[in-house]
Design brief:
By secondary structure, the chain is mostly helical. It contains 2 helices and no strands. The protein starts with 8 loop residues before the first helix and ends in a 6-residue tail after the last helix.
Length: about 80
């Protein structure tokens, strides 16, 4: 019978890095899930939203500025093959 092969230190480090990445991604996902649940719970409260006046011109300008910035950012990002 041959002795079990020892894993290389590099493989072990790579596996640890991948595991840490996976755990961090899952923690982020669970954190977003908890945040969503908290928001839903708050939305059930009577004072969650208040009616009021909205400056539609300012709102529209803000949305256009954000959308334009995103569009410019996308045009600078190479398209992925998919």
């Amino acid at each position: 019978m041959s002795a079990p092969k020892r894993r290389s230190a590099t493989a072990s480090r790579d596996e640890r890095r991948e595991t840490v990445e996976l755990v961090c991604d899952e923690l982020d996902r669970m954190s977003r899930f908890v945040d969503d649940l908290l928001l839903l719970a708050q939305a059930e409260q009577a004072d969650f939203s208040r009616a009021g006046d909205v400056d539609l011109d300012a709102l529209t300008e803000e949305l256009m500025a954000k959308a334009s910035a995103r569009a410019i950012g996308r045009s600078r990002t190479p398209a992925s093959g998919g």
